[in-house]
């Protein structure tokens, strides 16, 4: 746990270092954040402890004494199996109750700290809200307190929350005082753009705007609300990491229904835009040609021919129309395809986001169960492995434990990444790492119970020799059969 906490410190050191944040607040954040490390710490701890314990017993010939007394390996493990069983149950309840509560506390505390320190509230490469009227994006922050900004883009909201002001500058600097609620943002070498509101309705179609260049421009932001931040305030409580099993079940069902409704409505809209629905219209009386040349009017006779050709040969449907109408139909089809493609591209990000959120909830649900089973299964990997290698201490057991854990951990990470974007089902993504360790645990337990080595080289060489002798006999039989036929 201490090792992973140090890793967390290095992970968040850029956000907390040099920001005049009390050590008590940092300690509180690490205390809230530490339960999130248990899914990584506990499986490694069980694996390492089981290898070290049973390796030490085997190294000191304790198992030899047990077997001489008629005590099998299973009987020696029985007490620990019961302990690991209850540990797995406790791990599930910890993942279901403690980890979501800790995530809730740590997320809100980190959010409130970011609001209290505006420099932290501005993220690199993304728009961040500072105050009530400003949305700021910077490419890079540097300086002693990250107060120097590069490539600043600001969207300022006017009355009515209308985004009609954009300011861009090459450099920027944040200047603030501990005793003041006003934050100064000094911009250098930039441009100012603003959409103007026309007085008359006729001039609005001209979209009047103002543009200005500046060498130095100072913006004053009122941070009275930010400086009155209550670090104990808790507002955000709807992320998937903060939910228990019951809440995740409800959220998954709600998200599934919403996504199905959105997908269905979007599919119907796209289908209607293609004009394919018009092919189901029954023939009606012929209409007069429309004065609008871009609009194609199909008579009842043409519709009857169209329906007949659909069932026979769809390639010759267009031939029933005159030449100028064929050109119109081709242009309309191309425009429909282009519009549909742009609509799909525009909606793609939102649909992927919804799918990813849905998969996140399913992953979070099944990972709570998978963590409990992982502790139980990794015990049956570590205990027989320690009995087989007959080494205790922190040498070889540590190497084997870290190697097995990294295999388990990286398989879990890759499966999780594939499950998030829907490449594999999220249920499989949550269970695949534990499922791979299950046959390994069964194999090692059987080998240790039968008092066999991990790999029997003599047995392998015998099998290879038998294989070569079998191939040699088969070759000689084929040669004899060929000679007889000749």
Question: What does this 3D model show about the protein?
Answer:
The chain is of the alpha+beta class and 486 residues long. It is 61% helix and 13% strand. It is built from 13 helices and seven strands. It has helices spanning 2-16, 23-33, 38-59, 62-68, 73-116, 118-121, 224-227, 245-274, 300-312, 323-389, 396-420, 426-449, 457-485, and strands spanning 128-130, 134-137, 140-142, 148-157, 163-175, 182-195, 209-222. Strands 1, 2, 3, 4, 5, 6 and 7 form a seven-stranded antiparallel β-sheet that branches. Strand 4 and strand 5 (163-175) form a beta hairpin. The longest helix has 67 residues, at 323-389. The model is unreliable at 226-234 and 281-294 (pLDDT under 50).
Q: What's the SSE blueprint?
A:
Layout: H1 2-16, H2 23-33, H3 38-59, H4 62-68, H5 73-116, H6 118-121, E1 128-130, E2 134-137, E3 140-142, E4 148-157, E5 163-175, E6 182-195, E7 209-222, H7 224-227, H8 245-274, H9 300-312, H10 323-389, H11 396-420, H12 426-449, H13 457-485
Antiparallel strand pairs: 1-2, 2-4, 3-4, 4-5, 5-6, 6-7
Helix pairs in contact: 2-5, 3-10, 3-11, 5-10, 8-10, 10-11, 10-12, 11-12
């Amino acid at each position: 746990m201490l090792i992973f906490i140090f890793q967390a410190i290095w992970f968040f050191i850029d956000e907390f270092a040099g920001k005049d944040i009390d050590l008590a607040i940092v300690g509180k954040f690490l205390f809230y954040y530490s339960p999130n490390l248990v899914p990584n710490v506990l499986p490694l701890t069980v694996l390492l402890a089981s290898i070290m314990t049973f390796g030490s017993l085997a190294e000191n010939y304790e198992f030899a004494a047990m077997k001489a007394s008629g005590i099998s390996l299973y009987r020696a493990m029985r007490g620990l199996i019961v302990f690991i069983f209850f540990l797995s149950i406790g791990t599930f309840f910890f993942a279901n109750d403690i980890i979501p509560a800790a995530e809730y506390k740590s997320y809100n505390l980190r959010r409130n700290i970011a609001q209290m320190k505006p420099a932290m509230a501005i993220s690199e490469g993304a728009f961040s809200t500072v105050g009530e009227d400003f949305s700021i994006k910077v490419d890079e922050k540097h300086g002693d307190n990250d107060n120097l900004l590069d490539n600043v883009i600001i969207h300022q909201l006017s009355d009515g929350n209308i985004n009609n002001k954009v300011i861009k500058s090459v450099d920027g600097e944040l200047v603030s005082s501990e005793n003041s609620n006003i934050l100064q943002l000094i911009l250098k070498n930039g441009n100012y753009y603003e959409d103007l509101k026309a007085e008359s309705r006729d001039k609005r179609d001209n979209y009047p705007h103002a543009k200005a260049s500046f060498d130095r421009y100072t913006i004053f932001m009122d941070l009275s609300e930010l400086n009155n931040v209550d670090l104990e305030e808790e507002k955000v409580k709807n992320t998937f990491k903060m939910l228990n099993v019951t809440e995740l079940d409800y959220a998954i069902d709600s998200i599934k229904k919403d996504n199905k409704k959105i997908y269905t409505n979007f599919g119907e809209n796209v289908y209607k835009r293609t004009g394919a629905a018009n092919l189901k219209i029954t023939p009606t009386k012929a209409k007069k040609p429309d004065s609008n040349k871009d609009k194609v009017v199909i008579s009842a006779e043409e519709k009857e021919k169209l329906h007949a050709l659909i069932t026979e040969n769809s390639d010759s449907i267009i031939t029933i129309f005159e030449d100028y109408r064929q050109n119109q139909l081709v242009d309309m089809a191309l425009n429909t395809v282009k519009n549909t493609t742009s609509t799909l591209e525009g909606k793609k990000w939102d649909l992927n986001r919804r799918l990813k959120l849905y998969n996140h909830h399913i992953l979070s649900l099944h990972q709570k169960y998978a963590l409990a089973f992982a502790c139980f299964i990794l015990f049956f990997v570590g205990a027989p492995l320690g009995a087989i290698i007959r080494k205790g201490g922190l040498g070889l057991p540590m190497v084997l434990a870290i190697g097995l854990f990294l295999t388990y951990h990286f398989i879990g990470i890759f499966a999780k990444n594939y499950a998030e974007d829907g490449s594999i089902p999220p249920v499989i993504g949550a269970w695949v790492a534990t499922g791979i360790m299950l046959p390994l645990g069964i194999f090692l337990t059987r080998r240790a119970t039968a008092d066999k080595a991990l790999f029997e080289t003599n047995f392998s060489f015998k099998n290879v020799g038998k294989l070569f002798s079998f191939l040699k006999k088969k070759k000689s039989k084929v040669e004899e059969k060929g000679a007889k036929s000749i």
